[in-house]
Amino acid sequence: MVWWGINGSIVFCVYLIGCYQCHFKYNKNNGKKKKIRRMSVDKRNYSEGFCFLLSYRLYKQFYINCGLMEQLTVENVQLLPAKNDDHGGVVIELEEHMDSDVFLTLLKTSLSQWTTQGKKGVWIKIPILLVNLVEPAVKEGFCYHHAESDYVMLVKWIPETTSTIPANASHRVGVGAVVLNHKREMLVVQEKNGPLRGKGIWKVPTGIVDVGEDICTGAIREVKEETGIDTEFVEVLAFRQWHKSFFEKSDLFFVCMMRPLSFEIQIQEVEIEAAKWMPVEEVAAQPFAQKESLLRYITDLCIAKVERDYSGFSPHPVTSGVIYLNKRDLN
Amino acid sequence: MVWWGINGSIVFCVYLIGCYQCHFKYNKNNGKKKKIRRMSVDKRNYSEGFCFLLSYRLYKQFYINCGLMEQLTVENVQLLPAKNDDHGGVVIELEEHMDSDVFLTLLKTSLSQWTTQGKKGVWIKIPILLVNLVEPAVKEGFCYHHAESDYVMLVKWIPETTSTIPANASHRVGVGAVVLNHKREMLVVQEKNGPLRGKGIWKVPTGIVDVGEDICTGAIREVKEETGIDTEFVEVLAFRQWHKSFFEKSDLFFVCMMRPLSFEIQIQEVEIEAAKWMPVEEVAAQPFAQKESLLRYITDLCIAKVERDYSGFSPHPVTSGVIYLNKRDLN
User: Fold this and answer.
1) Where is the Nudix hydrolase domain (chains A, B) (predicted)?
2) Which terminal residue of chain B has fewer beta carbons within 10 Å of its beta carbon, N or C?
3) Which residues in chain A touch residue B301, judged by CB atoms under 8 angstroms apart?
4) Which of A125, A131, A255 to substitute to test the interface with B, most B CBs within 10 Å?
């Protein structure tokens, strides 16, 4: 405290000298008297502006050092860079390094202004490199909305009314690929990792759809990655919804029918223990493919598709993405 | 620095006195000589343990104050509370307030131990109330994995091998409900908010599926909330996948056929401007329901369902959730 006190006093003296210099120059220029605190940079010449900014920064630092930042009421304080969104709110995307205390002051001032303007949701995207700004934002009443590896998005609802902040992503999307050759053999794999590891269970190639990837593209990619087989997407035979799959999130798993375009297997060493073409009935006969299990449904659907013209959902482009529907019944 | 220096010296003196007392008592008890630093709490009596812990805490505080935490190498340092996961990693769920410096020390020591043990992914769940621990975790090489309003989950992959950390949730799931009465009239609404606000467009009730909610349950809930109509879920007529729907996330929208169980409309004032029963052909004739638009497909599917026995996907329970499939074609 002694150290801050000494430094604070020096800083304040420099500030007073700065003010005096401005005041002196100002009076010398036009002879009129006016409150120093009302000075605005854009109305003075460069040297005055510089002098004002220097003294303002030192003055602010003095207040920060004394823990009295709350009382700072100097005019012309900057706001955080924000864009309006389509729902009456604002979005702040921080990119450059900033001192936590400076950020807190700017945030308080900005929030005060947005409240006056009747803004609703305030979003702050903080890159991981600026992690020092997360704590001050939370202390100003922000909550997390979502996070990706390199940033966290925080949000605060200003009005007294019920929040209409949109929900975070809730589902992970997986695909299972049914690839059948002309001998009624299904492309199956044994996994090297996960709960089925070492159990000798033959199952269809599966995987997680990448961010921004279509279900049909994801299915083609996964089969190629795991087995080296090229395929063409036919249709979605069924899908399963499952909750609390990982970290309280849900899971949508799409069973996809694929047509093989190549037949020579080359397994991916990291994830796959073994891969082969196996008669559908043998896949279904495994003890693991019991009543009501997903693998049982997968083999049943596959047999229905080849023997009884089962109609799944096939993809069609629409203005907003891709729609999957029963094309045979629609036409 | 002077302040820290004085305090540090006092702390260190107290530490030395503590050590001496331990040493003295130890020698008095069995007469053997042994290095003080090798003392282990579980091998001594309570008073020695307490004395050691007190001196250790003061000694640690001294190092923290001097900014020399990195050099702290005292034995018996506590580890963070962690549970093993099913994939060779560990999960830390923090619940109690902790000083950032103490956390950083515990984290470094724990990471060192887990590295020796060959652990893979390390997960830290930090509640929003412990936001002060986010910055130290990031500085130790952790990235964000995901966040919900009240916590952030961080993760670090220890081995040199490619990370197999599972992907974050990538999709938001929405439902649109096609509710048709016996007069071929469709239940439609006009929205009070969002992009369709004030445009006079009649559309089916829509909404976002809650976390952990089944698609069929979500559709029943949304119709009831928006219009007061009770319904029974029939089947999924189609679904649409759309990317970059919000914050780079994707969107899966399920078009659901519903059977009405009541007919008197009571609109939800907050979200809905108006609601009514409208002939299907009139809904389809709106300029908004143009070629390749989602609303056009919705009305086409509805007409196909009532006129040509269109078969969608109906839900069936499986051991892992609910599977939606074409029941007519499977049997």
Assistant:
1) 170-302
2) C
3) 325, 330
4) A131
Could you tell me the end-to-end alpha-carbon distance of chain A, in angstroms, rounded to an integer?
81
Three-class SS state of B174: strand
Task: Give CA–CA dist A136/B131, Å, rounded.
Answer: 9
**Cα A211-A214-A220 angle, rounded to 5 deg:** 105
Q: With left for phi above 0 and alpha for psi between -120 and 50, is residue B37 left, alpha or beta?
A: alpha
B225 is catalytic: yes
Mutation for testing the A interface, residue in B318, B322, B327, B328 having most A CBs under 10 Å: B318
Contact B238 A313 (CB under 8 A): yes
Smallest CA-to-CA distance from A181 within A308, A306, A314 is with A306
CB-neighbour burial class of residue B38 (10 A; exposed 0-12, middle 13-18, buried 19+)? exposed
pLDDT in 10s for each residue of chain A, 331 residues: 445 445 445 544 445 555 455 455 544 544 444 444 444 434 444 444 444 445 555 555 555 444 444 333 444 458 899 999 878 899 998 988 999 999 999 999 999 999 999 999 999 999 999 999 999 999 999 999 999 999 999 999 999 988 888 888 999 999 999 999 999 999 999 998 777 788 889 999 999 998 899 999 999 999 999 999 999 999 999 999 999 877 778 999 999 999 999 999 999 888 899 999 999 999 999 988 877 789 999 999 999 999 988 999 999 999 889 999 999 999 8
Contact call for residues A260 and A231 (beta carbons, < 8 A) = yes
How remote is the C-alpha of A144 from its chain's centroid? 11
Nearest-angstrom CA–CA distance, B208 and A292: 28
Q: Give this complex's ipTM.
A: 0.72
Residues of A in contact with B312 (CB under 8 A): 326
Best CA proximity match to B171, nearest among A252, A235, A244: A252
Q: DSSP H helical segments within chain A, as ranges?
A: 2-30, 46-65, 100-116, 134-139, 215-227, 280-285, 294-308, 327-330
Token match 């390749």: residue?
B292
Give the integer Cα–Cα distance in Å for B131 and A142.
11
Is residue A222 within 8 A of residue A205, CB to CB? The reply is yes
* Nearest alpha-carbon partner for B239 in B253, B225, B222, B260: B253
CA distances from A30 to A40, A51, B202 (A): 16, 18, 67
